[in-house]
Structure formats: structure tokens, C-alpha cells
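G., the chain you wanted modeled:
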Amino acid sequence: MFRYSATQWIFGDEGIEASLKRLQKYGYDGVELAGEPYSIDIEHTKRLLKQYGLICTSICGIYTAERDLSSSRPEVRQKAVQYVKDCVDMASSLGAAHVIVVPSPVGKSRPETTSSEEWANAVNSLKEAGEYAASKQINLAIEALNRFETYLVNNLETALALAKEVNVDSVKIMADLFHMNIEERSHVQALKTIAPYLVHVHIADNTREAAGMGQTDFEPVIRTLIELNYQGPITMEFLPPVANPYLAASKTGSSEVFDLYTERSIQEMKRIVQKITGTASA
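Predicted structure as C-alpha cells:
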């Protein structure tokens, strides 16, 4: 019913082959690769994906201060837009359908100028990047991050307003359950509100650990996705408890913990799907 993947950058500085081997072991369909188009070896990655029988479902953009689509500085915006375009090229080369975009970077708690000006900057940046993505038949998926990580787009209603103002067919929305646990009053209603734009989902529990290890009730979420005939991937994005999630990418983690979380996440999703549909999830 769903294609399951996991974000590779959550495994820290682990080599990509080790990550792909883990995903194959626990029955995943694909991987979401970090948006680092300037360092990845595309041909080597293609060979590894083929070797382990996995697809690249998506590219997770990494939005630092130097990649700020809303910046008041034109040179920063220009570099940010080019970065998204380069991620689109990366996605196209690897057969991925989606590139995740965050309008204002992690760590930006307030505007450099005004919120309205930076909103307009984000709209213009996404128009340009979105038109390029459309030419490559790639979706840009706007991700709303919680108020403690950034300021401009914190919930799905705001992401919807942004996508509508951009008004480019390739600019869609993704839903991240960790951020939704903080910002949304109702998972179900939020998903229904953005349904026409929903192309991607990230799964983590309220603790940001693997699904099933915290307090999130995922059953209504999965039931709603099934009812909405959601066609995108279900991507696991569990993380260690750090204030800045990008710090995880520079840390060496425990392979035992990675194994536990990777297995637990997909088992929890498949258990829920089976409970709802009465059939085992492949």
C-alpha cells in the first residue's frame, strides 16, 4: 500500500552502503538522500541502489543560513535558489520524485527585516525554483518546521498559504509528524486541509524517536492517508535528542540503535496498516 523509506542523513556520518544495507535488511523500498549535490558521487550511488534493490524516493534539502530562500540579502537568496535547482538535478539523476524545501533555515527565529518582506522573498524564490523543478518533472515539497527551529512556516495551514501564493504546479507540501505534534491541533484535520498538495510524509514519534516509542497515535494518521489515497512515500526521520537536528549529521551513532529504530519504525507502520486494512503490508 505504501512505499517505505528512511532519511539517510539520520544515520550520521555512516557510509551510505551501510545505511542501504540496513534498509534492505528491514524491508524498506527506498531511501531519502541528503541534499548535498556538491559532494555525492551519483554514479556510485546508483550502483549501490541497484545492488541493494532500493529506489531513491526523495532528496531532503539541508537548509542552513547560507541556503535561506527568504533572506533579505539577494546574493544569499540567489545561492539558495541555485542550491534547490542543484538538488532538483540530483533528484532527476537518481530517479527521485521530490525535493524537500524549507523556506527559512533551521536556527532562524526572527526575520532580518520584516516577516512580510521575507514571505515575499520566499514566494519569489520558490517560484523560480519551482518552475525549474517543473521542467524536470520534480516536485518541491514545502516542509513546515516547528517554532523552536525556525519562524516563517511552522504549520501546514501556513505551508498551504505559501504553496497557493507561489502558484506553480510543482510546488507541493510535505507533512512531518514530529513537527505536527508540536504545531497542529489535529493531525487528521491538518492532513485533510492540505490533501490536494500532499506529496510526502515524514514519520517520527513525539520524542523524535522511532514510531511506537513515544505517545503519538499513528493509527488515525495512517487511516487518513489511506482514505485520501495518498500516493507518496512514508519516510522515517527519527533523530537523536539534539536541539539542532543538523548536528546529527556530524555525529557517529550506534549501529545497534540505528538498527532498533529502523526496524521498529517500519514494523509499527506495517502493523497499523494491517490492523486498518486486514491485510499484511508487503
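The first strand starts at residue 4 and ends at 7.

Shout if anything looks off.
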